[in-house]
Amino acid sequence: MTMYNIEYFLEPTKENFHTLRVIGEDGNTKYIHSKYYPTREASYLKDIVNPEKYDVLIILGIGLGYHLDYLTEIIHSFTHIICIDIHDYLINACIPEHIHLLLQNPAIETLIIDPLMPEQLYKMIPINCRKGIQVIDHQASFTAFPSAFASIKNIVQQIIQKSLSNQLTSNYFAARYCKNAIINIPALPTCYPVMKFNNIHQNIPCIIVAPGPSLEESLPLLYKNQNKVYIISVDSAVKVLSSYGIEPDYIIAIDPQPIVYAHLFGVHHHATIISMLTAHPAVFSSPVIVSLNTHPLCQLIEQVFPATIGSIDSKTGSVLGDAVSFAQFSGFSPIGIAGADFSFPHFITYARSTEYHYRYEAAHTRLSPIETSNMQYIFHASKGTLVEQRYSRKVFVQYRNAIDALINTTTTYQINVSGLQLKNAVPLSTEDFFTLPTIIQYHKKLSPQALKQPLDIHWERLYSYLHNDSIFNELLKASKVGDSYASQLKLLLKLLLQKR
Fold it and tell me: Which of 63, 97, 448, 460 has its C-alpha lying 20 to 30 A from 336's C-alpha?
């Protein structure tokens, strides 16, 4: 039931079907369909929709569905069709039976969105396209409710941009992801399944640490109170914590590239690493808490060993998102998020002592001081993009919005907000966070030893599946691995099988 107040009327036409009249945003009467002959809108999409170029179709504005009639002819041409509106007008509406059946077709997903909360779309639109995504506006719906549909369209465009960006990244790293997963399989029997951590830290306070510039202000109090909260660090923040003598309890490391060496190794810590099967094999040099993601090889593992490993994949495309997902999955409450700036506040890139900061220091010269390097990086990375008067990157904004949609508790706090604010997290100073009653009363205890039970799976069974050429070829295809890399991965698999 939408909270958005819409006054509408179903009126008869000369065709014995209803048309739709609404009171628009400006207070005036608007017709969403023809007043007399609404079925004549059947060809509305005919010259607009392009199934040859796109395989995902999103239509903004459903009304009574007359303009969707043409979808009946082309529905098979799309892998996904999503129709979005701000109210369900079809209850008690008299429309042609074939349109009614069309809207009930399982190939078409209809979403009724409260335009006061368009961010709910982040959780509702999973997009996986091969060719492209086409968005079509129903002009009459936009004319009646311009700001409502504009806010929805803005969110849809953000989702599409993030989806395409993720796909480009996935395609670029496809071979690396697959290679990492194949190499990491033998380590699985020594790892701990993340599913064992579900609600294991119920109502225990934690703080998630990211490497943004605002983190530095929190470090003195975090050092003083590290026995009062569990500390979940993203890999790139570990060196910052180490420089202050702060020991994290968990480290999230999911990067498929060798940068994990620079973030984690050479830093003394006792924390348990939480990782994905597609992470760089260096992460799996010691037992980790392993989680599955959407990679086809992970899906195969889930089929072979169902309900054995589990997942905290946030689908946000960011390690911080996975850290938030793990904190919620484990039952932590309250949850603090420090160093999450999603921008470059005060023209600073990252907190000092991060690997990224060290790299800028290494480039420091008399002619190009570190401040100049920072500014050059900020302007290059942001391309001049200003969000809420702060320089940011489009991908940072996408991460912020996706994590916002992920947060599902009123006891999540964003600490020392100096960058972009999370709408669903309460802004709080470090001092106020550590004086919350639940934190004052808590003293950190060791994790139950029961969690240290490794996976009871036999990785040879997985390799026996992969040894089947048809299965392996299908896996490579689903993983979007090009032919140039396929032969290398087959050779890698053969070598691993010989070592078995």
Answer: 448
What gap in Å lies between CA 17 and CA 65, rounded to an integer? 12
Amino acid at 234: V
Rg (CA), the chain: 26
- For 401, half-sphere exposure in the C-beta direction (CA atoms, 13 angstrom radius) is 23
Task: Read off the DSSP letter of residue 25.
Answer: T
Q: Is the pTM of this model over 0.70?
A: no
For residue 382 the two structure tokens come to 């942001």
**CA dist., res. 269 & res. 260, Å (int):** 14
**Cα 182 from chain centroid?**
24
E-assigned strands of 339-442? 386-387, 390-391, 412-415, 426-428
pLDDT (tens place) for every residue of the chain, 500 residues total: 344 689 999 999 999 999 999 999 999 999 999 999 999 999 899 889 988 888 889 999 999 999 999 999 999 889 889 999 999 999 999 999 999 999 999 889 999 998 888 888 877 776 666 677 899 999 999 999 999 999 899 888 888 877 766 665 555 578 888 899 989 988 898 999 999 999 999 999 999 999 888 898 999 999 999 999 999 999 989 989 988 999 999 999 998 888 777 788 777 778 889 999 999 998 998 899 999 998 889 998 998 889 899 999 998 889 999 999 999 999 999 999 999 988 877 666 666 666 565 555 554 455 555 556 666 666 565 566 677 777 677 777 888 888 998 997 779 999 998 888 999 999 999 999 999 999 999 988 765 554 667 887 877 777 778 888 888 888 888 887 877 778 888 888 778 766 65
Which one, of 487, 500, 499, lies nearest residue 179 by Cα?
A: 487
Domain boundaries, given as residue ranges, for the chain: 8-170, 179-452, 459-499
Which DSSP category does 234 fall into?
E
Nearest alpha carbon to residue 428 among 410, 412, 415, 411: 415
Q: Note the CATH architecture for domain 8-170.
A: 3-Layer(aba) Sandwich (3.40)
The Cα–Cα gap between 214 and 269 comes to 23
